[in-house]
C-alpha cells in the first residue's frame, strides 16, 4: 500500500545482534585464508624466486587467525561459556549449526598453518608441501564457513543466498593478496639493503605479477557482487529494500563509494594501467584501497544485512 | 492443523499427543497492551525488552482511517531456524512444540537472534543470556494459561492444544480464516492471526528504511 497511508505509532525496538566486531572477525579470517592460499601457490609453484612470497604468507596467515577469534569472544554475551562449544558430545553440540563446523576449523587450521610456517622457514620443502596440501582445504573452509553462518541466517534477505560462501571466499582471496602485496613492497623497499641488485629486481617482477593476479580476482569478485545485487533487485520485498539501502540509501557510501569505487574500480585501474602497473607507490596505494574496500564489504554485509526491520 | 499443513513432516499420522499454539483474534483486540504488561511482570522482562508487544499502526486518509494492532511474540515454530542454528543446543524444541532456551547452556553468541525472521529474541542485559516467549511453559506445565492469555480483556488470545479437537483453539482454527507471519519462510509459525492487517504485518510499511533506529542487544 502507498507508504503515505501508513503511520507506525508503536513498535518494539529493532535490534542488530551481530555488530562490528563480527565484521572484523570475518575480515581477519579472510585475510588469513587469502594469504595462506597465496603462500601455498608460491611454495607449490616451485620456482625459487617465489619462496619469499611463500614465507610472508606463512607468517601472516596464523597471525591473523590468532587475532580473529578474540573478536568473537568479545562479541559474545557469555565468553566464559565458550567451552560449551568444544564438548563435542552428541547431546550437547548441534552438528547442523555452521558455528560448530567453525569451531573445529578454527582449532585445526591455525595449528596446521603454524606447522606449515615452521617447515617453510626451516627450509624443509617436502614437509611444507605436505602441510600446504593439508592447509588449503582448511583455509578455504575456515573462511567459507563464515559465509555459511550468514547464508543460513534465513531471516535476512542479504545473507540468505547460495552465493554468500563463494563471495566470502573470493573476497578473502582479494584481501589476502592485497595484504601480501603490501608486505612484499615494504620488504622490497625498506628491508632489502643486503640483497643484490638482481634479487631486488626479481622481487619487483614478482610484485608486478601479484598485482595482475589481484586484478583478476577483483574482477571475479565484482562479478559476484553484480550477480548478488541484480538478484536482490528482483527478488522479495525485503531484498529490494536491502538493495535500496546498499545502492542509494544508508549504506551507499560504504558499498558503492568505498567497496566498489575505492576498493575495486580504482585498484583495478592501477594494476592494469601500464604506467601505474609497474610503480611500487601506486601498487601499495592500490593494495591499501583494496583492504579498506574489503573491510567495507564485511561491514555492509554484516550490519547492512541486519538493517531492514523484521517486525 | 499443523500436521496436515507441515512441509517438513512426512509422517502426519504420528502426530504428537499435544501441540501448543496460540491464536490472536484481532477482531477482538482493542490494543490495550495488557498482554505486554502481564508478560513483563510474569517473566521479569527487563526494561526496554519485550517477549510480547503490540505493534500499532494508523492507515488511510481522513475521513477513511483506521488503527490496526498486531500483537507479536515468538511463534514457537515447528521448523525453528533459531533451533537449527544454535551451536550448543541451548535452544531446543519440546515435544509439545514449545521452543525453549536452556539458560545454563546459552553462550550468548546471538546467532539465533540474527537468524530468527521475526526478531522476537533479546539478550537479558542483567543475566546476559538469550530469552524470548516460551508460551509460559512454567504455567502451562501446571495446567494454567499463559499470563498474556489470562489477562487479555477482549479474549483475543486463545491458547491450547491444536491436536485436541475439543479445545477452543482447534475449533477456532478449524472455523476461521487464519494466517501466520511470513508463512513463505517455511518456519511453520504456531501463532495464528485472524483478521491481521496487511500493512501491520509488513515490517517495512510506513517506515523510512534509511532512518530506522537500531539497538545493539546489550
Ligand atoms: S519465532 Fe523466531 S525465535 Fe521463535 S521459534 Fe520461530 S525462529 Fe525461533
Ligand atoms: S545465543 Fe544462546 S540460544 Fe542463541 S544460538 Fe547462541 S547459544 Fe544458542
Ligand atoms: S505466553 Fe508468556 S512469555 Fe509468551 S508472550 Fe505470553 S506472557 Fe509472555
Description:
The complex is a heterodimer of chains A (311) and B (218). Chain A has one domain (17-305): Up-down Bundle (Formate dehydrogenase/DMSO reductase fold). In chain A, 74% of the residues lie in helices and 2% in strands. In chain A, helix 1 crosses helix 5. Chain A is mainly α and 311 residues long. Chain A is built from 10 helices and 2 strands. Chain B is an alpha+beta fold. Chain B has a single domain (20-202), classed as Alpha-Beta Plaits (2-Layer Sandwich). Chain B contains 8 helices and 10 strands. Chain B has helices at residues 2-5, 34-43, 81-85, 111-115, 137-140, 147-151, 168-175, 198-201; strands at 20-25, 52-61, 64-73, 91-93, 99-101, 122-123, 130-131, 157-161, 191-194, 214-215. In chain B, the strands form 4 sheets. A 3-stranded mixed beta sheet of chain B has the order 8-1-9. A two-stranded antiparallel sheet of chain B has the order 2-3. The longest helix of chain B is centred in the N-terminal third of the chain and has 10 residues, at 34-43. The chains are: A mainly alpha (311), B alpha+beta (218). Chains A and B meet through strand 1, strand 2, helix 3 and helix 7 of A and strand 2, helix 3, helix 4, strand 6 and strand 10 of B. Bound molecules: iron/sulfur cluster (3 copies). One iron/sulfur cluster (SF4) binds at residues 74-77, 80-82, 99, 116, 118, 120-121, 132, 187 of chain B.
